[in-house]
Amino acid sequence: MNGKLKTFVGGVHPPDGKALSKDCAIEKFPAPEKVYIPLTQHIGAPCKPLVAKGDEVKMGQMIGEAGGFVSAPVHSSVSGKVVAMEKRPNIFGLKSDTVVIENDGQDTWCDGMNQHQDVSGLNADEIKNRIVNGGIVGMGGATFPTHVKVSPPPEKSIDTLILNGVECEPYLTADDRLMLEEPERIVKGAQLLMKAVGARRGIIGIEANKPEAFKTISEAVKGVEGWSVEMLRVKYPQGAEKQLIKALLDREVPSGGLPMDAGALVNNVGTAAAVFDAVVLNKPLIERVTTVTGEGVERPANWLVRVGTPIRLLLEEAGVRPEAKKIILGGPMMGLAEFDLDLPVIKGTSGVLVLTEAADGDYENCIRCGRCVEGCPAYLIPSELSIIVEAGEFDMAKERNILDCIECGVCAYVCPARRPIIHLIKLGKAELAKRRSKAG
Ligand code: SF4
Ligand code: SF4
Protein backbone atom coordinates (compact mmCIF):
# COMPACT_ATOMS: atom_id res chain seq x y z
CA MET A 1 0.00 0.00 0.00
CA ASN A 2 2.93 2.35 0.76
CA GLY A 3 3.75 2.62 -2.98
CA LYS A 4 0.34 4.07 -3.90
CA LEU A 5 0.38 6.79 -1.29
CA LYS A 6 1.34 10.39 -1.97
CA THR A 7 4.91 11.50 -1.37
CA PHE A 8 7.76 13.69 -2.70
CA VAL A 9 10.84 13.07 -4.86
CA GLY A 10 14.05 11.93 -3.10
CA GLY A 11 14.38 11.01 0.55
CA VAL A 12 15.45 7.88 2.40
CA HIS A 13 14.11 5.08 4.60
CA PRO A 14 16.18 4.97 7.79
CA PRO A 15 15.27 2.35 10.44
CA ASP A 16 12.52 4.09 12.38
CA GLY A 17 13.14 2.87 15.95
CA LYS A 18 9.61 3.95 16.90
CA ALA A 19 8.61 0.58 18.35
CA LEU A 20 10.61 1.41 21.48
CA SER A 21 8.19 4.13 22.63
CA LYS A 22 5.13 4.19 20.38
CA ASP A 23 2.98 2.24 22.86
CA CYS A 24 4.06 4.31 25.88
CA ALA A 25 1.08 6.47 26.85
CA ILE A 26 1.82 10.10 27.70
CA GLU A 27 2.57 10.46 31.41
CA LYS A 28 3.10 13.62 33.43
CA PHE A 29 6.73 14.01 34.39
CA PRO A 30 7.02 15.33 37.97
CA ALA A 31 7.72 19.06 38.15
CA PRO A 32 11.32 19.54 39.30
CA GLU A 33 12.45 21.46 42.39
CA LYS A 34 13.99 24.11 40.13
CA VAL A 35 13.26 25.04 36.53
CA TYR A 36 15.79 26.71 34.21
CA ILE A 37 13.87 28.74 31.64
CA PRO A 38 15.94 30.29 28.82
CA LEU A 39 14.75 33.62 27.41
CA THR A 40 15.67 32.34 23.94
CA GLN A 41 13.67 29.28 22.97
CA HIS A 42 12.56 30.27 19.51
CA ILE A 43 13.79 31.53 16.16
CA GLY A 44 13.98 35.32 16.34
CA ALA A 45 14.84 38.01 18.86
CA PRO A 46 15.53 36.93 22.46
CA CYS A 47 12.99 37.91 25.12
CA LYS A 48 13.51 40.77 27.53
CA PRO A 49 13.23 39.72 31.18
CA LEU A 50 10.17 40.84 33.14
CA VAL A 51 11.31 39.45 36.51
CA ALA A 52 14.34 39.81 38.77
CA LYS A 53 16.03 37.67 41.40
CA GLY A 54 13.85 37.45 44.50
CA ASP A 55 10.50 37.91 42.69
CA GLU A 56 7.63 35.55 43.46
CA VAL A 57 6.02 34.16 40.30
CA LYS A 58 2.85 32.25 39.52
CA MET A 59 2.42 29.42 37.06
CA GLY A 60 1.82 30.78 33.56
CA GLN A 61 3.17 34.23 34.45
CA MET A 62 4.99 35.95 31.60
CA ILE A 63 8.66 36.18 32.69
CA GLY A 64 10.11 37.32 29.36
CA GLU A 65 8.43 39.59 26.81
CA ALA A 66 8.92 39.21 23.07
CA GLY A 67 11.98 41.11 21.85
CA GLY A 68 10.40 41.96 18.48
CA PHE A 69 7.72 40.83 16.04
CA VAL A 70 9.66 37.65 15.25
CA SER A 71 9.91 36.49 18.84
CA ALA A 72 7.67 34.81 21.43
CA PRO A 73 7.21 35.50 25.15
CA VAL A 74 8.18 32.90 27.75
CA HIS A 75 6.21 31.99 30.88
CA SER A 76 6.93 30.33 34.19
CA SER A 77 6.16 26.61 34.23
CA VAL A 78 5.84 26.50 38.04
CA SER A 79 4.85 28.82 40.87
CA GLY A 80 7.66 29.84 43.19
CA LYS A 81 10.55 32.26 43.53
CA VAL A 82 13.15 33.51 41.05
CA VAL A 83 16.46 32.49 42.63
CA ALA A 84 18.83 33.48 39.82
CA MET A 85 19.03 35.27 36.49
CA GLU A 86 22.11 33.90 34.78
CA LYS A 87 23.68 32.97 31.47
CA ARG A 88 23.53 29.21 30.91
CA PRO A 89 24.44 27.00 27.93
CA ASN A 90 21.74 26.35 25.33
CA ILE A 91 21.39 23.54 22.78
CA PHE A 92 23.35 25.48 20.18
CA GLY A 93 26.45 25.55 22.41
CA LEU A 94 25.99 29.26 23.15
CA LYS A 95 24.99 30.88 26.43
CA SER A 96 21.60 32.49 26.85
CA ASP A 97 19.92 34.44 29.64
CA THR A 98 18.04 32.01 31.84
CA VAL A 99 15.52 32.51 34.64
CA VAL A 100 16.02 29.99 37.48
CA ILE A 101 12.85 29.46 39.54
CA GLU A 102 12.56 27.47 42.75
CA ASN A 103 9.30 25.52 42.62
CA ASP A 104 7.03 25.98 45.66
CA GLY A 105 5.15 22.83 44.68
CA GLN A 106 1.79 24.65 44.77
CA ASP A 107 1.16 25.06 41.01
CA THR A 108 -0.66 28.35 41.66
CA TRP A 109 -1.90 29.65 38.30
CA CYS A 110 -2.16 33.31 37.38
CA ASP A 111 -5.74 34.56 37.76
CA GLY A 112 -8.01 33.51 34.89
CA MET A 113 -5.57 31.00 33.42
CA ASN A 114 -6.19 27.35 32.58
CA GLN A 115 -9.97 27.87 32.47
CA HIS A 116 -12.25 26.90 29.62
CA GLN A 117 -13.72 29.86 27.73
CA ASP A 118 -16.26 30.27 24.95
CA VAL A 119 -14.19 31.43 21.97
CA SER A 120 -16.78 31.01 19.21
CA GLY A 121 -17.09 34.79 18.80
CA LEU A 122 -13.36 35.54 18.48
CA ASN A 123 -12.21 37.07 15.21
CA ALA A 124 -8.90 36.34 13.45
CA ASP A 125 -6.99 39.16 15.17
CA GLU A 126 -8.23 38.14 18.61
CA ILE A 127 -7.10 34.56 17.98
CA LYS A 128 -3.69 35.81 16.84
CA ASN A 129 -3.37 37.94 19.98
CA ARG A 130 -3.98 34.93 22.17
CA ILE A 131 -1.42 32.94 20.15
CA VAL A 132 1.16 35.73 20.70
CA ASN A 133 0.42 36.03 24.41
CA GLY A 134 0.59 32.25 24.83
CA GLY A 135 4.16 32.20 23.49
CA ILE A 136 3.27 29.59 20.88
CA VAL A 137 6.05 28.43 18.56
CA GLY A 138 6.45 25.51 16.14
CA MET A 139 6.44 22.42 18.36
CA GLY A 140 7.94 20.07 15.78
CA GLY A 141 11.36 21.41 16.72
CA ALA A 142 11.53 24.43 14.39
CA THR A 143 10.37 26.87 17.12
CA PHE A 144 9.33 29.58 14.65
CA PRO A 145 6.81 31.91 16.33
CA THR A 146 3.33 30.79 15.27
CA HIS A 147 1.74 34.26 15.25
CA VAL A 148 4.24 35.31 12.56
CA LYS A 149 3.33 32.29 10.45
CA VAL A 150 -0.37 33.06 10.65
CA SER A 151 0.16 36.71 9.70
CA PRO A 152 1.24 36.60 6.04
CA PRO A 153 1.49 39.89 4.15
CA PRO A 154 -1.84 40.94 2.57
CA GLU A 155 -0.67 40.13 -0.96
CA LYS A 156 -0.20 36.44 -0.05
CA SER A 157 -3.33 34.42 0.16
CA ILE A 158 -3.36 31.09 1.99
CA ASP A 159 -6.02 28.72 0.73
CA THR A 160 -4.87 25.58 2.55
CA LEU A 161 -3.78 24.94 6.08
CA ILE A 162 -1.78 21.74 6.45
CA LEU A 163 -1.43 20.06 9.79
CA ASN A 164 1.73 18.02 10.03
CA GLY A 165 1.16 14.71 11.79
CA VAL A 166 3.94 12.98 9.88
CA GLU A 167 6.64 12.79 12.57
CA CYS A 168 9.09 11.33 10.06
CA GLU A 169 12.14 11.66 12.34
CA PRO A 170 13.11 8.14 13.44
CA TYR A 171 12.49 7.20 17.10
CA LEU A 172 10.20 10.13 17.97
CA THR A 173 6.64 9.26 18.97
CA ALA A 174 5.42 12.35 20.86
CA ASP A 175 3.12 13.50 18.00
CA ASP A 176 1.84 9.97 17.40
CA ARG A 177 0.80 9.68 21.06
CA LEU A 178 -0.71 13.16 21.05
CA MET A 179 -2.85 12.30 18.00
CA LEU A 180 -4.01 9.10 19.69
CA GLU A 181 -4.72 10.64 23.07
CA GLU A 182 -5.77 14.26 22.35
CA PRO A 183 -7.40 14.32 18.90
CA GLU A 184 -10.11 16.84 19.89
CA ARG A 185 -7.56 19.31 21.21
CA ILE A 186 -5.59 19.05 17.95
CA VAL A 187 -8.61 19.42 15.68
CA LYS A 188 -10.05 22.36 17.64
CA GLY A 189 -6.63 24.06 17.60
CA ALA A 190 -6.44 23.43 13.85
CA GLN A 191 -9.84 25.10 13.35
CA LEU A 192 -8.63 28.15 15.27
CA LEU A 193 -5.48 28.33 13.12
CA MET A 194 -7.65 28.07 10.01
CA LYS A 195 -9.83 30.94 11.19
CA ALA A 196 -6.77 33.03 12.08
CA VAL A 197 -5.26 32.68 8.62
CA GLY A 198 -8.49 32.70 6.61
CA ALA A 199 -7.83 29.41 4.79
CA ARG A 200 -10.79 27.61 3.25
CA ARG A 201 -9.61 24.04 3.67
CA GLY A 202 -7.40 22.03 5.96
CA ILE A 203 -5.56 18.74 5.47
CA ILE A 204 -3.95 16.66 8.20
CA GLY A 205 -1.07 14.58 6.79
CA ILE A 206 -0.14 11.39 8.65
CA GLU A 207 2.42 8.78 7.60
CA ALA A 208 1.22 5.24 6.94
CA ASN A 209 3.25 3.90 9.87
CA LYS A 210 0.71 5.47 12.28
CA PRO A 211 -2.53 3.68 11.33
CA GLU A 212 -4.11 4.09 14.78
CA ALA A 213 -3.44 7.84 14.83
CA PHE A 214 -4.85 8.07 11.30
CA LYS A 215 -8.03 6.34 12.45
CA THR A 216 -8.37 8.46 15.59
CA ILE A 217 -7.82 11.77 13.81
CA SER A 218 -10.13 10.74 10.96
CA GLU A 219 -12.89 10.15 13.54
CA ALA A 220 -12.20 13.52 15.15
CA VAL A 221 -12.51 15.48 11.87
CA LYS A 222 -15.74 13.76 10.79
CA GLY A 223 -18.26 16.53 10.17
CA VAL A 224 -15.72 19.32 10.68
CA GLU A 225 -16.20 21.64 7.72
CA GLY A 226 -13.29 21.98 5.32
CA TRP A 227 -11.04 19.36 6.94
CA SER A 228 -9.77 16.03 5.65
CA VAL A 229 -7.03 13.56 6.61
CA GLU A 230 -4.52 12.09 4.17
CA MET A 231 -2.29 9.06 4.69
CA LEU A 232 1.20 9.57 3.29
CA ARG A 233 3.95 7.23 2.20
CA VAL A 234 6.57 6.46 4.85
CA LYS A 235 9.72 8.28 3.80
CA TYR A 236 12.12 10.72 5.41
CA PRO A 237 11.79 13.81 5.36
CA GLN A 238 8.07 13.55 4.54
CA GLY A 239 7.32 16.02 7.35
CA ALA A 240 9.50 18.85 5.99
CA GLU A 241 7.24 21.74 4.95
CA LYS A 242 8.09 21.89 1.26
CA GLN A 243 7.96 18.11 0.88
CA LEU A 244 4.61 17.94 2.65
CA ILE A 245 3.16 20.64 0.37
CA LYS A 246 4.47 18.80 -2.68
CA ALA A 247 3.01 15.49 -1.50
CA LEU A 248 -0.39 16.79 -0.44
CA LEU A 249 -1.05 19.60 -2.92
CA ASP A 250 1.36 18.82 -5.75
CA ARG A 251 2.62 22.40 -5.50
CA GLU A 252 6.28 23.46 -5.49
CA VAL A 253 7.47 26.13 -3.08
CA PRO A 254 9.75 28.23 -5.31
CA SER A 255 13.50 28.35 -4.65
CA GLY A 256 14.11 30.86 -1.86
CA GLY A 257 10.36 30.99 -1.15
CA LEU A 258 8.11 30.10 1.76
CA PRO A 259 5.03 27.84 1.97
CA MET A 260 2.84 30.96 1.65
CA ASP A 261 4.28 31.38 -1.88
CA ALA A 262 2.48 28.13 -2.69
CA GLY A 263 -0.73 29.27 -0.97
CA ALA A 264 -0.19 26.99 2.02
CA LEU A 265 0.68 27.13 5.67
CA VAL A 266 2.07 24.17 7.62
CA ASN A 267 1.76 23.68 11.36
CA ASN A 268 2.65 20.72 13.52
CA VAL A 269 -0.10 18.80 15.36
CA GLY A 270 1.57 19.69 18.68
CA THR A 271 1.42 23.36 17.74
CA ALA A 272 -2.32 23.04 17.06
CA ALA A 273 -2.81 21.50 20.53
CA ALA A 274 -0.80 24.36 22.07
CA VAL A 275 -2.92 26.89 20.14
CA PHE A 276 -6.05 25.29 21.61
CA ASP A 277 -4.57 25.70 25.11
CA ALA A 278 -3.60 29.34 24.54
CA VAL A 279 -6.86 30.42 22.92
CA VAL A 280 -9.50 28.31 24.66
CA LEU A 281 -7.92 27.75 28.08
CA ASN A 282 -5.81 30.91 28.33
CA LYS A 283 -2.92 28.56 29.11
CA PRO A 284 0.50 29.58 27.77
CA LEU A 285 3.07 27.12 26.43
CA ILE A 286 4.71 25.90 29.65
CA GLU A 287 4.87 22.15 29.02
CA ARG A 288 5.19 19.79 26.10
CA VAL A 289 5.27 16.08 25.22
CA THR A 290 8.85 14.83 24.85
CA THR A 291 9.89 11.32 23.79
CA VAL A 292 12.80 9.89 25.76
CA THR A 293 14.02 6.82 23.92
CA GLY A 294 16.78 4.95 22.12
CA GLU A 295 18.60 1.67 22.65
CA GLY A 296 20.61 3.45 25.36
CA VAL A 297 17.71 3.82 27.84
CA GLU A 298 16.01 1.13 29.91
CA ARG A 299 12.50 2.61 30.05
CA PRO A 300 11.55 4.64 26.95
CA ALA A 301 8.68 7.07 27.55
CA ASN A 302 6.54 9.91 26.24
CA TRP A 303 6.40 12.46 29.00
CA LEU A 304 4.49 15.69 29.44
CA VAL A 305 7.37 17.79 30.74
CA ARG A 306 7.45 21.32 32.20
CA VAL A 307 9.61 23.71 30.19
CA GLY A 308 12.82 24.25 32.15
CA THR A 309 13.18 20.67 33.44
CA PRO A 310 16.83 19.52 33.17
CA ILE A 311 17.18 16.60 30.76
CA ARG A 312 19.36 14.91 33.41
CA LEU A 313 16.16 14.23 35.40
CA LEU A 314 14.44 12.65 32.38
CA LEU A 315 17.44 10.41 31.78
CA GLU A 316 17.63 9.39 35.46
CA GLU A 317 13.98 8.34 35.31
CA ALA A 318 14.39 6.52 31.98
CA GLY A 319 17.58 4.77 33.17
CA VAL A 320 20.66 5.16 30.97
CA ARG A 321 22.31 1.86 30.05
CA PRO A 322 26.10 1.49 30.53
CA GLU A 323 26.55 0.99 26.76
CA ALA A 324 25.02 4.42 25.92
CA LYS A 325 27.37 6.44 23.72
CA LYS A 326 25.56 9.48 22.43
CA ILE A 327 22.72 11.80 23.48
CA ILE A 328 20.77 13.72 20.86
CA LEU A 329 18.13 16.38 21.46
CA GLY A 330 15.50 15.79 18.77
CA GLY A 331 15.70 12.89 16.31
CA PRO A 332 18.79 11.22 14.83
CA MET A 333 18.48 12.99 11.44
CA MET A 334 18.06 16.64 12.43
CA GLY A 335 18.73 16.64 16.18
CA LEU A 336 21.84 17.97 17.88
CA ALA A 337 24.30 15.81 19.83
CA GLU A 338 24.67 17.12 23.38
CA PHE A 339 27.09 16.54 26.22
CA ASP A 340 25.60 18.86 28.83
CA LEU A 341 22.87 17.01 30.75
CA ASP A 342 21.91 20.18 32.62
CA LEU A 343 20.36 21.63 29.48
CA PRO A 344 16.65 22.16 30.07
CA VAL A 345 13.68 20.96 28.05
CA ILE A 346 12.48 23.93 25.99
CA LYS A 347 9.45 24.53 23.77
CA GLY A 348 11.10 22.75 20.82
CA THR A 349 12.39 19.64 22.63
CA SER A 350 10.54 16.91 20.78
CA GLY A 351 12.80 14.14 22.00
CA VAL A 352 15.85 13.03 23.96
CA LEU A 353 17.49 10.15 22.18
CA VAL A 354 20.19 7.95 23.72
CA LEU A 355 22.08 5.84 21.20
CA THR A 356 24.51 3.02 21.83
CA GLU A 357 26.59 3.64 18.74
CA ALA A 358 28.58 6.82 18.25
CA ALA A 359 29.31 8.02 14.70
CA ASP A 360 32.80 7.37 13.39
CA GLY A 361 34.63 10.69 13.19
CA ASP A 362 36.82 9.86 10.13
CA TYR A 363 35.71 10.66 6.62
CA GLU A 364 37.07 10.15 3.14
CA ASN A 365 37.02 11.95 -0.20
CA CYS A 366 33.85 11.96 -2.26
CA ILE A 367 33.70 8.92 -4.54
CA ARG A 368 31.05 10.53 -6.78
CA CYS A 369 28.51 7.79 -6.18
CA GLY A 370 25.62 10.25 -6.55
CA ARG A 371 23.61 8.88 -3.62
CA CYS A 372 23.36 12.29 -1.94
CA VAL A 373 22.03 13.83 -5.18
CA GLU A 374 19.47 11.07 -5.60
CA GLY A 375 18.27 11.43 -2.00
CA CYS A 376 18.20 15.22 -1.70
CA PRO A 377 14.54 16.29 -1.47
CA ALA A 378 15.48 19.89 -2.29
CA TYR A 379 16.93 18.95 -5.71
CA LEU A 380 20.43 20.15 -4.74
CA ILE A 381 23.83 18.64 -5.45
CA PRO A 382 25.05 18.18 -1.87
CA SER A 383 28.45 16.69 -2.83
CA GLU A 384 29.27 19.77 -4.89
CA LEU A 385 27.96 22.20 -2.28
CA SER A 386 30.12 20.66 0.43
CA ILE A 387 33.24 20.92 -1.71
CA ILE A 388 32.44 24.53 -2.68
CA VAL A 389 32.01 25.51 0.99
CA GLU A 390 35.22 23.68 1.95
CA ALA A 391 36.99 25.85 -0.66
CA GLY A 392 35.47 29.00 0.88
CA GLU A 393 33.52 29.84 -2.31
CA PHE A 394 30.41 31.13 -0.55
CA ASP A 395 29.07 33.23 -3.42
CA MET A 396 29.19 30.20 -5.67
CA ALA A 397 27.40 28.16 -3.00
CA LYS A 398 24.64 30.77 -3.00
CA GLU A 399 24.37 30.59 -6.79
CA ARG A 400 23.98 26.82 -6.43
CA ASN A 401 21.00 27.43 -4.10
CA ILE A 402 22.59 26.38 -0.82
CA LEU A 403 19.91 28.44 0.96
CA ASP A 404 17.27 25.99 -0.27
CA CYS A 405 18.81 23.24 1.87
CA ILE A 406 16.30 22.20 4.55
CA GLU A 407 19.06 20.58 6.66
CA CYS A 408 17.27 17.25 6.65
CA GLY A 409 20.51 15.25 6.88
CA VAL A 410 19.61 12.79 4.10
CA CYS A 411 22.87 13.47 2.22
CA ALA A 412 25.04 12.74 5.26
CA TYR A 413 22.96 9.66 6.06
CA VAL A 414 23.49 8.04 2.64
CA CYS A 415 27.11 9.08 2.07
CA PRO A 416 29.41 6.00 2.02
CA ALA A 417 32.45 8.27 2.47
CA ARG A 418 30.84 9.67 5.66
CA ARG A 419 31.52 13.20 4.46
CA PRO A 420 30.30 15.89 6.89
CA ILE A 421 28.08 17.38 4.16
CA ILE A 422 25.43 18.79 6.44
CA HIS A 423 27.98 20.45 8.72
CA LEU A 424 29.63 22.12 5.73
CA ILE A 425 26.29 23.26 4.33
CA LYS A 426 25.28 24.74 7.69
CA LEU A 427 28.64 26.49 7.81
CA GLY A 428 28.07 27.93 4.33
CA LYS A 429 24.57 29.13 5.23
CA ALA A 430 25.83 30.71 8.46
CA GLU A 431 28.58 32.55 6.57
CA LEU A 432 26.05 33.90 4.06
CA ALA A 433 23.73 34.98 6.90
CA LYS A 434 26.65 36.81 8.56
CA ARG A 435 27.39 38.63 5.31
CA ARG A 436 23.71 39.57 4.90
CA SER A 437 23.50 41.02 8.39
CA LYS A 438 26.76 42.99 7.90
CA ALA A 439 25.40 44.40 4.67
CA GLY A 440 22.35 45.53 6.70
S1 SF4 B 1 21.61 19.16 0.87
FE1 SF4 B 1 20.23 19.80 2.48
S2 SF4 B 1 18.18 19.34 1.72
FE2 SF4 B 1 19.65 18.16 0.47
S3 SF4 B 1 19.81 16.18 1.49
FE3 SF4 B 1 21.46 17.44 2.32
S4 SF4 B 1 20.58 18.34 4.16
FE4 SF4 B 1 18.83 17.56 2.96
S1 SF4 C 1 27.08 10.45 -1.26
FE1 SF4 C 1 29.10 11.08 -0.50
S2 SF4 C 1 30.53 10.00 -1.79
FE2 SF4 C 1 28.55 9.87 -2.83
S3 SF4 C 1 28.51 11.65 -4.23
FE3 SF4 C 1 27.58 12.32 -2.33
S4 SF4 C 1 29.28 13.23 -1.15
FE4 SF4 C 1 30.20 11.97 -2.77
Structure commentary:
This protein has helices spanning 124-133, 146-149, 174-181, 183-197, 211-221, 241-249, 269-280, 311-318, 371-375, 382-390, 394-399, 410-414, 421-438; strands at 26-28, 34-38, 48-49, 56-57, 62-65, 74-75, 80-89, 95-103, 160-165, 201-207, 227-232, 264-268, 287-293, 301-306, 326-329, 336-338, 351-355. It has 440 residues and is α/β, with parallel strands linked by helices. Among the domains are: 2-22 and 114-280, NADH-ubiquinone oxidoreductase 51kDa subunit (Rossmann fold), CATH 3.40.50; 371-438, no CATH class. The strands form 4 sheets. A 6-stranded mixed beta sheet has the order 1-14-13-17-15-16. A 4-stranded antiparallel beta sheet has the order 2-8-7-4, with no helix packed on it. Strand 13 and strand 14 (301-306) form a beta hairpin. Helix 1 packs across helix 4 (183-197), helix 3 (174-181) packs across helix 5 and helix 10 crosses helix 13. The chain binds iron/sulfur cluster (2 copies). Residues 375-378, 380, 382, 405-411, 421-422, 425 line the site of one iron/sulfur cluster (SF4).
What is the strand tally? Answer: 17
- Ends apart, CA distance between termini: 51 Å
Name the hetero compounds present: iron/sulfur cluster
The CATH topology of the domain at 2-22 and 114-280 is Rossmann fold
CATH superfamily of the domain at 2-22 and 114-280: NADH-ubiquinone oxidoreductase 51kDa subunit
Largest sheet: 6 strands, mixed
